[in-house]
Amino acid sequence: MLNVLLLIINLIAICSVNNAYANEENPKIEDLCKKSSVDDIALHNIDKDYMTNRFTINESTVLTTEKFLDIDLLFKNFTWLDGKSAEFKDLKVEFSSSEISKEYFGKTVDIYGVYYKAHCHGEHQVKTACTYGGVTPHENNKLSEPKEIGVAVYKDNVNVNTFIVTTDKKKVTAQELDIKVRTKLNNVYKLYDRMTSDVQKGYIKFHSHSEHKESFYYDLFYIKGNLPDQYLQIYNDNKTIDSSDYHIDVYLFT
Fold first, then answer.
1. Of the CATH numbers 3.10.20.120, 3.40.190.10, 3.80.30.20, 3.20.10.10, which one belongs to the domain with range 15-52+141-253?
2. Is 56-137 assigned to CATH 2.40.50.110?
3. pLDDT tens digits for 23-77?
4. How many CA atoms lie within 13 A of 150 on its CB side?
5. What gap in Å lies between CA 218 and CA 222, rounded to an integer?
6. Which among 8, 33, 46, 85 has the fewest CB atoms less than 10 Å away?
7. Considering the entire predicted model, what is its pTM?
8. For 224, what's the count of Cα atoms within 13 Å in the CB-facing half-sphere?
């Protein structure tokens, strides 16, 4: 019994953040999830998701009036699959609620997200790829020029890098920006490589320039489960922000 209690206390100490992102000012370093507590299989899988664009969907001007369940949208014979993986025919986009699904049902949308195939279930005998969220309206949401969003990187509280990510959307999902930032970080700092990277903790902070809009962060090592169908659920709320209202800071700790 004592051993079980010690294990529970130890796990809480390792990672007391119980969500992928939180609407707080800044987390305490001791509350962030630690890479050493993440399973090797999970690190291997998430490393591939944020290393190249192999599993990234970036599709514009699509529409569907079909669903598999009440909380998703089902895109039939999705054309991007020909260029990515011809074995798939459909794309299922899943959300955290039916209200989000209804908002985009039957409307022309854009999709930007990470897709997965393991444990993705579509219609009977139809090979389907899945993603969580990443949907924005297409109509009246395009910018005349791409919006540049500044990203500052701090390692052990020292500014070590700055770069730019862009979007062509007025309203953009946090997922799109998170994917772009995380992929850049992973290529430079090998975030999810246990052997070659000294980064043990970190988070991506979305800073709002307006006092009326929330700032929030993603814990880089909050990784639920070992497979994408579990850890990519952080995007199923389809969180959307105004691209003109945010800049991004990244905090890495060794």
1. 3.10.20.120
2. yes
3. 657 899 999 999 999 999 999 999 999 998 889 999 999 999 999 999 999 999 8
4. 8
5. 8
6. 8
7. 0.90
8. 13
Q: What is the pLDDT of residue 22?
A: 61
Given this model, what pLDDT does residue 234 score?
Answer: 98
Distance of CA 171 to the CA centre of its chain: 16
